Amino acid sequence: MQRQGFSQTQVCWKSKKNKRTATATKARGIKKDDGSFVHSGEVLVTQLGLSYYPGENVELTRNNSLCAMCDGKVIFSSEKLSPYPDSPLYQPVKNGVVIHKNFVHVLPIPTHGKFRLVSEI
């Protein structure tokens, strides 16, 4: 038996009135694969926190993204961490704990001699 003045569609509509739209997900992760060629300034990894640490020719931006500092080939590696003395990880490493972290490196392309001396011209 239905009540007067209400229909089924009105009740369903009212229950969905205060739903919020979901925010878009962040596209975090590895942007360039191991062995790929990158140009200076390209983003290699976007991350929340430090899952990957910057290595040779890689800079850490304010939002923890890793960017290439020069043109070259991307290399991912897992290396033994050797922290600075002011780091909180320094004391455990000094006591013998081995900590391995993931690093991202950019190996620059070798520059070939494409110039001549003035005396040879």
Automatic annotation (TrEMBL):
Keywords: Ribonucleoprotein, Ribosomal protein
Coiled-coil portions: none
InterPro entries per the UniProt record, alphabetical: Ribosomal_bL27
Superkingdom to which the source organism belongs: Eukaryota
The family this protein is said to belong to: Belongs to the bacterial ribosomal protein bL27 family.
Protein name (Swiss-Prot/TrEMBL): Ribosomal protein L27
Species this protein is from: Tegillarca granosa
